[in-house]
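Human: I would love a firmer grasp of how sequence relates to backbone shape in proteins. Could you go through the record with me and say what the backbone is doing? Here is the record:
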Amino acid sequence: MHTLTVGLGERSYPIYIGTGLLANAALLKAHFPNQRAAIVTNTTIAPLYLAQLKRTLQEIGVSSVDIILPDGEIYKTSDTLNLIYDALLTHRCERSTPLIALGGGVIGDMTGYAAASYLRGVPFIQIPTTLLSQVDSSVGGKTGINHPLGKNMIGAFYQPKLVIADIATLNTLPDNELSAGLAEVIKYGLIRDLSFLAWLELNIEKLLARDPEALQYAVMRSCQNKAEVVMADERESGERALLNLGHTFGHAIESGMGYGVWLHGEAVAAGTLMAADLSQRLGWLSDADVARTRALFLRARLPVCGPDLGEDRYLNYMGHDKKVEAGKLRFVLLKKIGQAVIEGNVPAGLLQQTLAACVHE
């Protein structure tokens, strides 16, 4: 097991990464002062891992309220959030009752937002079960829900008490979900960790084959990168925005196609290639840089073109991006491989060229 720390003063917390951690009661023992917990999961994960987590909690004398939500990005809404509140209120969960998020990014984001707002703040614990949530969304305290006009536009920064990433849960992950998680893993190499990018180029097939040592290393290295950025800029006033490489285009794809039609990681992959194309048109990346990026995403079995939503729809959805400032679009782009920048002065003509060149019918 590897242990990392997100250092945020009094709100610092550990990230535990290893195999078989769902059965490790010692990791959880200190967090249940009234011997109660509320577990939020979904209809896909509950049959796989809920019973194991409940057994682990029972070892330390903790009983749980189980809240099982429908599965999918389409349910990351205020209506589904209210199902969490309904259960917490019905079972009279108190301010000292932690919420445990058992699932992927949707469950983690909604549980975190429920924890931030129920009784004005209760503790919560992240137990991510997808690669994407283990390497990205479970770390850093971003919580929230979607709105028809924009993804993750309603939420709060609210840090967990701990994160438990059990690599064994990835064994039940569908192949396309595993690939989707790799989009966020590759992102860290492109924006700030060249040696990790080189490692990924050597080991991407091992990750696709679910080699446990390779997966554990990739999760650990990704979490190290995420933790360093969060510690430097918790509320995304500067450097943390660089983690959104590909997300401005990607969120437009998700919103434009309808939530859940494209997986988040699939949209980020296509969005990252669009960002690379735009970086090349600005004179920052070479043909070889873009080809290198494209090749790695293709090997990870990810899309490298976005859907043809039409220029106007892309611009409309991108206009709801959280990085918009004074009404002006800002993009995370690559000054070079391994160095991301935020750029708000993209000529309209170049953006139009990218939107035309990087989509398919």
Q: What stands out?
A: The chain has a mean pLDDT of 96.
